[in-house]
Automatic annotation (TrEMBL):
This is NAD(P)-binding protein. It holds the Pfam family NmrA. One of its GO terms (molecular function) is aldehyde dehydrogenase (NAD+) activity. Residues 3-71 form the NmrA-like domain. One of its GO terms (cellular component) is cytoplasm.
Length: 360
């Protein structure tokens, strides 16, 4: 692959900031062209993103700029999307551009790495406890094997199909982080989980869960998510990735070794912290009423009310390890994340109906 250029979507986001920084560290010979929303109208944001990589060019645009995205994806051999797990418009534009690049015959099939989330394997348990769940290995996962009503599939299935084609093929890979925690770098320093709960909890008057909150989650530090992406990309460039004969690179779960936790325990700790800070009138956690859960519909029940338990076996075969997650757990990180969040505004960038465009 002679052209050492990466087209990056989401560089100003929470995961995107760490990914851009890591690309500069792990692939220093590659330049990055990053699509960033309203970059020319926000000098401070522009400076923060630009400081993360020594050879980055910033392009003003957002995920709905389909023509722009297609144009850039068609020009370059690598596209990485860490902007959104659920944005079919940008996914289609990216795939259209990459297929055009592939059809041109220059340099072989292009690479597309896309971020999704573990909500795809949710059992939709409605917050109920389910005993003796066997972790699902990413070696056994395929988007067509889970309920079609689960989140992220509207984007994941077209990406998978593009990777399995034999004509104008694209080497596609999807990464599936668990509950992402930690402190961000660059323009966005607070994780989406913190932002969404800081908006929902005051609206309800208390911290809460979808159903009783006995459903269990796996977690991973944002630094380990970024290292997973660069580990995968390097393996694909070197021909070491777990790819089929048609070039489709399989799905990769990104999970730590930290113990499982229930959403009841997590939201209770979160609620106690917001109570101490004066954002709530009571601590602890209790189930949300329909007036709150209905705002997100099936998305909320699938993402926040189901068990999401997997095993990150493909990445481990490539030598990836959750190094940062071993240093600090999701509960130990919470006070640090909230201290950053308390200093930041606004609380949330999207309305409840738009949350499906974020990675959960």
């Amino acid at each position: 692959m002679s052209d050492k250029t990466i087209f990056l979507l989401g560089a100003s986001g929470f995961i995107g900031g760490h990914t851009l920084k890591r690309l500069g560290e792990d692939l220093p010979s590659y330049r990055v062209i990053a699509l960033v929303r309203d970059i020319n109208a926000n000098p401070e944001k522009k400076a923060k993103v630009a400081a993360l990589h020594p050879n980055v060019e910033l392009v003003d645009g957002d995920l709905n700029d389909a023509t722009l995205i297609k144009s850039y994806a068609s020009k370059y051999p690598i596209t990485v999307n860490v902007a959104s797990s659920d944005h079919p418009v940008s996914v289609k534009a990216t795939l259209d551009g990459l297929e055009e690049h592939s059809g041109s015959g220059g340099g072989g099939p292009p690479i597309y790495i896309h971020i999704s989330g573990m909500g795809v394997i949710s059992d939709n348990a409605r917050g109920e406890r389910v005993e003796n769940i066997k972790p699902l290995s990413d070696l056994d996962y395929h988007p067509t094997k889970v309920p079609r009503t689960n989140v992220h599939l509207d984007s994941d299935i077209p990406i998978t199909e593009a990777g399995e084609r034999t004509v104008n093929r694209v080497r596609t890979a999807i990464v599936y982080p668990g509950w992402v925690y930690g402190e961000g770098v660059g323009a966005q320093r607070t994780t989406f989980g913190v932002r969404i709960y800081r908006a929902l909890f005051p609206a309800a008057g208390h911290a809460g869960t979808w159903g009783p909150g006995e459903n269990q989650m796996t977690s991973v530090h944002v630094v380990d998510v970024a290292s997973a992406i660069t580990t995968l990309l390097k393996a694909m460039l070197e021909g070491r990735a777990d790819e089929g004969k048609d070039g489709h690179c399989k799905s990769h779960f990104v999970l730590s070794e930290q113990p499982l936790y229930t959403m009841k325990d997590f939201t209770a700790a979160f609620g106690d912290a917001l109570y101490k800070h004066g954002e709530l009138k009571e601590g602890g956690s209790k189930p949300f009423p329909p007036s709150i859960t209905d705002q997100m519909g099936d998305l909320g029940w699938c993402s926040l009310g189901g068990n999401q338990i997997g095993s990150a076996d493909r990445l481990r075969k490539l030598g990836w390890e959750p190094v940062e997650s071993r240093k600090i757990s999701v509960f130990e990180s919470m006070p640090l994340e909230l201290e950053v969040a308390f200093q930041a505004a606004p609380v949330l960038e999207t309305a409840p109906g738009e949350r499906k465009q974020q990675t959960l």
